């Protein structure tokens, strides 16, 4: 029965169902009683904590500080920036009252009509408006700049079609909001944070990403330029994994935030914002996992090593306990997180498949023969291979192995992307190939019309105009008009 | 001008205004455009991060894990536990719609009447209901217990009279929610978390607290027993600093959460919940600070040491820079957080008063004579005393000094509380003394009627029935009826 419970739909049969099975069965998250809102379960949240800790360190190393701004935004704020309201008013939770009262007709409670707010409040879908309204009070002179704030928070967007981690009505994220004296400085900041995100994705999530610029259609509502990192999932679809926006003076103008420069002249302040969310956990799952369960890169695994004893008697278990205690200490001394599971109400086979499902990078098993031989069985989650090694210097061995696994998971994802990225020059070929789950590098004339036509006919979007790589000009595959460089097309989550 | 900006109202003149001045001028927090919601500024948030990190470590050491539950609670959930709805329905933010649309009569946006929710959602004032509704799916058997979850989150209570940190409509907190197979185990858990809170308050916040039980009037809505830690502020008022609730089977019954025990019998699950909030920062400020600004205990100070150079020339500054660099490294190697402020646009005097205002525990200053003599000036924030010491072994000297400061701040707060805690036996004396800002240990007959009479006539409440200390019975100071032990009365924040 335990085995059936853990069985997943195969990726090859139904990729979407495989993903959902995995999120539920690996105890990462589940749907809640509130439509579109998820419960992040302890194992899923432990991954988020690893993500948070690492990103937070990186933000602080680049000079940022954390702060906290209100959950609620006065309705009128949303409409101060013209594009912003178009982007966010359509999907927001609106607070209209501040009290309930007993239902006069029976039991239960009803909204008290007398407790109606004068102005409705929006649950933040993103915080540019409330933050720039606050920054007005913080900024008078160039001496007050730059402001480099980040916030870890929950936000709400009333999505109609939701999927655990990937798209939920409420999600957790960080949002950086910076204010600068010059356009240059703000542009550099927006690019710097894109690099931070790319470094995090590649070095910690083991997720190769393409850094690029969004087309006008896909730009953040209120931004002058949106930078993005785009990753490929195992089905060849793209997942936007982080964005960094150069906001120009749009929000400063909307909220009248001016400063006096060194020469005594007044100007509007320049802005950026940037964010990543719990969506990253969806990316992590979809990029690396397999039909047996999660595959977690060691740097983000809640625990990196699990040790399972295999014993025939209480005496033998006691001997193994003693032997393992030394190994646990040695591993911890090298900064490796480890769990020793000697619980006696589950069999080793059950534990093996459990930790496979949960994506623990390395599983060690010790039995009677290992005790005699001073050996231990080492199983890698990423390759599903096993070997028996000496217990001497096992700590250093495991440390190196974890590095290998981290690299291998990255390499595998990179190989997948390389093998599924193609260049296409005709729209006919594009329409055929895009159905096979690939990133297509193609020329585009730079217009929204052409982009919309392609999207309408193929459901593929321009994921980004890459910052690095081939910049050879050419001709748009649809219109034949000039194209500055190939851009990345894909279907996307 | 800088000096005036930093000047605070004196505590002796107007304690409330002093507090507000300090919160604003030390850049801890400010009011936002949304009534009752605060902006936590970077310096204030940095203190909260220290609080979070420490508490989170302590929760994990005691076996807890973090998770995340939805922001929204269906309205019907609130009324499932009879006492709970009475306590929380009166002050909650209600989401009734999920979309805005362009105002047909002009610019701006209005609520779209067609996007009305079938059931209104409440922004969580606390999460017992949504969590116990979730736990129903997690618990079948005794093997699924205990569940030891904590959540770091924002909550909203529509308070009419708010004060930065102490009482705000939105605040940040952690809420632990545990599920147990037996009454005993749940009671032990509730007491254990009270001890964790008390240890944190005393050892990290340098805040002596009284551990006790709340009277029925002051109990959490839905709890069988509420445990509390109560601290004294410098005006002699009490501040409830953390609570831990034994919830019995109330929420399990309300949400039908049963489990099968080892003998195959079904029973409702036993529960606790416990929380502390950003209110702790208000306590920290009010307990220790003085007319010059914040006084922060070293364990929670965003930086523990600031170093200010005093120089007459660029050459001299360069020499000081070099000398200080070695000290900074030595301090950091001992785990001490340090900021070297050699910014040239502010004078040393300005910096001194700035860091005094911000409560940095130790300020070091180095000038030309110090260079010659291999000395440095050491100023303590808690005692406002200075001395000149040798640079040799300055790291160890500072480490010991920080320990001394931590202890001294605690001792000072304890002395204040001791000198302002009195025993009283008659209600006449009680009414007179309670106006002087004291904790009064008095006998009470255990009835809500007597407690309410005292509150109505004096504004003092029973802060707690202490768990430790004198348990001698006596007679109620109001009714003369028997009293099991003295309880703590005070006016409270």
From TrEMBL, chains A, B:
Task: State the CDD domains in the record.
Answer: ProRS_anticodon_zinc (cd00862), ProRS_core_arch_euk (cd00778)
**Which PROSITE patterns does the protein's record reference?**
AA_TRNA_LIGASE_II
Limits of the Aminoacyl-transfer RNA synthetases class-II family profile domain: 4-297
List the molecular function annotations (GO) for this entry. Answer: ATP binding; proline-tRNA ligase activity
Gene3D superfamilies attached here?
Anticodon-binding domain (3.40.50.800), Bira Bifunctional Protein, Domain 2 (3.30.930.10), C-terminal domain of ProRS (3.30.110.30)
Q: Can you supply one Gene Ontology CC term for this chain's record?
A: aminoacyl-tRNA synthetase multienzyme complex
SUPFAM superfamilies found in the cross-reference section? C-terminal domain of ProRS, Class II aaRS ABD-related, Class II aaRS and biotin synthetases
InterPro entries (alphabetical):
aa-tRNA-synt_IIb, aa-tRNA-synth_II, aa-tRNA-synth_II/BPL/LPL, Anticodon-bd, Anticodon-bd_dom_sf, Pro-tRNA-ligase_IIa_arc-type, Pro-tRNA_ligase_II_C, Pro-tRNA_synth_II
Please name the SMART domains in this protein's record. ProRS-C_1
* Primary residence: cytoplasm
Q: Where in the cell is it found?
A: Cytoplasm
Q: What is its EC number?
A: 6.1.1.15
Q: Name one GO biological process term.
A: prolyl-tRNA aminoacylation
Instruction: Spell out the HAMAP family in the cross-references.
Output: Pro_tRNA_synth_type3 (MF_01571)
Report the protein name in the record. Answer: Proline--tRNA ligase
What would be the name of the gene that encodes this protein? proS
